[in-house]
């Protein structure tokens, strides 16, 4: 299991220290939630905050763009640390072109879908994405309750991946904690995003280690 703690739940007055805590615990990625106040009803932060970590962490960035017209901003999030840039299917008028743009920078391209969006909208793109992010809450706010009914999407995508030999990583984001992570992984999810479940712990490195016990 790959763990990508979301810095949306970190303490921004001590962001560098909070990054070191998840590094110490053995996290695999830093999940960077970018919100524009248009595609989702909230504003988070932009590329300068992410780039402030450049040279200060070895953890790669797992960037999640919850923004309209993402193609205008892809280049801003390209750094030596950037592993994935994920855009929303619902925010792209030409998803294929956006995925190609991401890959043109040598970055792995991801696509995310909201809870109300079926996996069928991704037909024709399964062989063009490196990651599929299933939202298990409505995007826009941290700390929401996990939507159990979204697990079927991971089951579908896992079966399709095995049947067709696709190479995408299945990621899930929203309300995942130690009470449900085992069910999440059993459904076929390979990468877990956790925000408040990690940064809300009194001992953040130990909480990361607790998550990483699940395989």
Query: What gyration radius follows from the Cα positions, in whole Å?
Result: 16 Å
> What is the count of structural domains?
1
**What overall geometry do the principal axes of the alpha carbons give?**
globular
Percent of residues in β-strands? 15-25%
The CATH top-level class label: Alpha Beta
Distance between the termini: 5 Å
CATH topology label: TIM Barrel
Helix coverage percent: 25-40%
Relevant CATH superfamily: Aldolase class I
By helix and strand content, what is the structural category?
alpha/beta
Q: Write down the secondary-structure element order.
A: EHEHEEHEEHEHEHH
How is the main sheet built? Answer: 8 strands, parallel
Number of strands: 8
Mean pLDDT: 96
> Count the helices. How many?
7
Q: Which ranges are low-confidence, i.e. pLDDT below 50, for 5 or more consecutive residues?
A: none
Describe this structure as you would to a colleague.
This protein has 215 residues and is an alpha/beta fold. It has a single domain (2-212), classed as Aldolase class I (TIM Barrel, Alpha-Beta Barrel), CATH 3.20.20.70. It contains 7 helices and 8 strands, in the order βαβαββαββαβαβαα. The chain has helices at residues 15-25, 47-51, 95-104, 151-164, 181-186, 196-199, 204-212, and strands at residues 2-5, 30-35, 61-66, 82-88, 108-113, 131-135, 169-173, 191-194. An 8-stranded parallel beta sheet has the order 1-8-7-6-5-4-3-2. Helix 1 runs parallel beside helix 7 (204-212). It starts with a strand and ends with a helix.
């Amino acid at each position: 299991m790959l763990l990508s703690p979301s810095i949306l739940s970190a303490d921004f007055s001590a962001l560098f220290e909070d990054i070191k805590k998840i590094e110490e615990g053995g996290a695999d990625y830093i999940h960077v939630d970018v919100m524009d106040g248009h595609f989702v009803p909230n504003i988070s932060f932009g590329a300068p905050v992410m780039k402030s970590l450049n040279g200060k962490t070895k953890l790669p960035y797992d960037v999640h763009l919850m923004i309209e017209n993402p193609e205008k901003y892809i280049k801003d999030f390209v750094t030596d640390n950037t592993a994935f840039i994920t855009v929303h299917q619902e925010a792209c008028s030409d998803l294929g072109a956006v995925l190609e743009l991401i890959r043109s920078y040598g970055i792995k391209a991801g696509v995310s879908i909201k809870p109300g969006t079926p996996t069928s909208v991704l037909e024709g793109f399964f062989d063009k994405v490196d990651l599929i992010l299933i939202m298990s809450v409505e995007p826009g706010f941290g700390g929401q309750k996990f939507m159990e009914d979204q697990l079927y999407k991971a089951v579908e995508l896992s079966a399709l991946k095995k049947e067709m030999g696709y190479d995408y990583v299945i990621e899930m984001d929203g309300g995942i904690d130690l009470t449900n992570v085992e069910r999440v992984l059993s459904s076929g999810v390979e990468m877990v995003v956790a925000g408040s479940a990690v940064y809300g712990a009194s001992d953040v490195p130990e909480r990361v280690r607790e998550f990483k016990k699940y395989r």
